[in-house]
Amino acid sequence: MEASLEITLQMAIAVVAGISAQVIAAYLRVPSIVLLLFLGIILGSDGLGLLHPHLLGTGLEVIVSLATAIILFEGGLNLDLRELGRVSVSLQLLVTLGTLITLLGGSMAAHWLGEFPWNIAFLYASIVVVTGPTVVGPLLKQINVDRQVATLLEGEGVLIDPVGAILAFVVLDTIVNGDADPVNAIVGLLMRLGVGAAIGAVGGYLMSLVFKRASLLSFELKNLVVLAILWGLFSLAQTIRSESGVMTTVVAGAVFANSSVPEERLLRSFKGQLTILSVSVLFILLAADLSIASVFALGWGSVLTVLVLMFVVRPINILACTWNSNLNWRQKLFLSWVAPRGIVSASVASLFAILLTQHGINGGDAIKALVFLTIILTVVCQGLTAGGIAQLLQITSKDATGVVIVGCNPLSLLIARFFQEREESVVMIDTDPERCEKAAEQNIRVIASSALDTGVLEEAGLASMGTFLAMTSNGEVNFVLAQRAAEEFNPPRVLAVFPRDPQASNGGNQKTVNQAFVTELTIKAWNEYLNDGRVKLGTITLDAADFDSQQERIQEKIRTGVLLPLLLEREERLQVMPANHDWEIGDRIIYLLHDPRPNLLKRLSGASQSTPLAVEKLPELEEVALPTLAQLSTSEVSGS
């Protein structure tokens, strides 16, 4: 068989196997890297013998380098500087102090437990300093973890990759050249980081200019121009200073992503597809090149090395880097558990095995085997259990608190006050200065601008909020706003007041946008009721003994238009009431009841929180008499 045909078959098998693994992983809802690793090993020389990556020769190194550039660039695109600012101190410590802790802890474990010589132990530790963004990103999307934790893990994965890769090459240079001077090592590290960052910053700005000003180019051609520039920048950085290209790609992606580029979403989609293809092919090829015999030859000492890295070094790392942060113990525990290694570790280890052998230094194959053992254990153990642990610790995004409300009116102000009394973050958005002033008078944070501007939603912190509620007087606008919020920020709960069949309801995100309160709400009428004091404020807890009849009474009053369910309290969590929501025993419903008698409750939404609210008993429903909204959100006095 001709050599060219053999290489073609190798690449075709790798692509088919890689994409098949991605499809199966998506269907089974498991991390794709798990299937990629095992499928690569099965197809390799120790399995079915269909894949022989060594036939690619130096072409494998070229594929690894160019694919890694795409992967890290895509990671840089996903870096949100606003979100990173919230965890900037912890992130800086993870990339600096955390790198040092992992380097020292990993090398000591590899030396004392794995019985590696110190130079090889340090080289192993430098390789596994990185956490794989290509593993962390899909994993976080799958389990929908708390936004602050997700930002920290994603930022660590992207930023520590170039630092760790360059650190590994500095350690390798020290071993190969026999230069043990730490000053030279530090200078070499800083030079590579500096050269890479400078070229990446200029390149990222150049890419943004292409998208902004090259109006004659089609979207597809713009995407390819950016790809060409990316590979050109990577090669330039590698030529000027070896291994500085990895830093170049990350910085270029971050600069481009934060340059307010139009049609950026199209580039993200294109690069995301290339990243999936690159990860799939690389993992299949690198896993197929792994010798299973070399992994088993490591012995139990190497298994203990990886376990110490996971259960001792990582927790120490997180505690040291987040000790002064606002993260709670549950978030820190999750961060301590999730640190899977990925494609950068695998590619660097494979390359180092070749370089060490070329220089006549023993230990290359052992390092590669130990790194792949680390990848397998961290990915399988952490990847398969992260979702369950996040739910157990209650740090999934559905547990996120806080609300962003678009539209300042009496009804929305009332809802905002309930969340405010629970000490949840509340931000209101409106274009009317007078309405904004009323919200500000109640110590509610308000942004006087249009919520159609994505930047305004970012300023409101929607990315870390649990609820988005659009309740202006225009139902169609509310639905469009909710759609955009769901697409751009994907908060756990997206609700809007909109007509039953808006023209926009044909959009693909209809399922993620829930109607708020009831299916047909005349928001103008209920705001008038509030202004005129023609409402009663009440609560009812659904109990097992009277569950059906309670629901019937409530639904009857909703159908006649005299009762408006506002909020639902379930498992001590307050949320805006969705229309057509299935109620459960134990749910506590806070509602407004229309009473035509005037002056019963004067200008409820604009009143001070200390103003006494005299609410009459409702014989049909459980009712409370309250001096403040705070008491409504924390206590009940039954009345029948």
Secondary-structure blueprint:
Layout: H1 3-28, H2 32-43, H3 59-77, H4 81-86, H5 88-95, H6 97-112, H7 118-127, H8 133-143, H9 147-177, H10 182-213, H11 219-240, H12 245-257, H13 264-288, H14 292-296, H15 300-322, H16 329-337, H17 343-358, H18 364-393, E1 403-406, H19 410-421, E2 426-430, H20 433-441, E3 445-448, H21 454-459, E4 467-470, H22 475-488, E5 493-496, E6 514-515, H23 523-532, E7 535-541, H24 547-559, E8 563-570, E9 573-576, E10 588-594, H25 629-632
Parallel strand pairs: 1-2, 1-4, 2-3, 4-5, 5-6
Antiparallel strand pairs: 7-10, 8-9, 8-10
Radius of gyration: 29 Å
Rounded to the nearest angstrom, the distance between the terminal CA atoms is 88 Å
* Shape by Cα distribution: elongated
Poorly predicted runs are: 502-509, 599-620, 622-640
Strand line-up in the sheet with most strands: 3-2-1-4-5-6
Secondary structure tally: strands: 10
Q: Based on helices, strands and strand pairing, what is the structural class?
A: alpha/beta
Task: Specify the helix fraction band.
Answer: 55-70%
Number of helical regions? 25
CATH architecture of the largest domain: Up-down Bundle
* Strand residues, percent: 5-15%
CATH topology of the largest domain: Na+/H+ antiporter like fold
Count of all domains: 2
Q: Please, what is the average pLDDT?
A: 83
Q: State the major sheet.
A: 6 strands, parallel
CATH class of the largest domain, anyone? Mainly Alpha
Transmembrane segments: 12-42, 62-81, 93-114, 120-140, 152-172, 184-211, 223-240, 334-357, 369-393, 400-419
Main location: membrane
Protein name: Na+/H+ antiporter
Pfam families: Na_H_Exchanger, TrkA_N
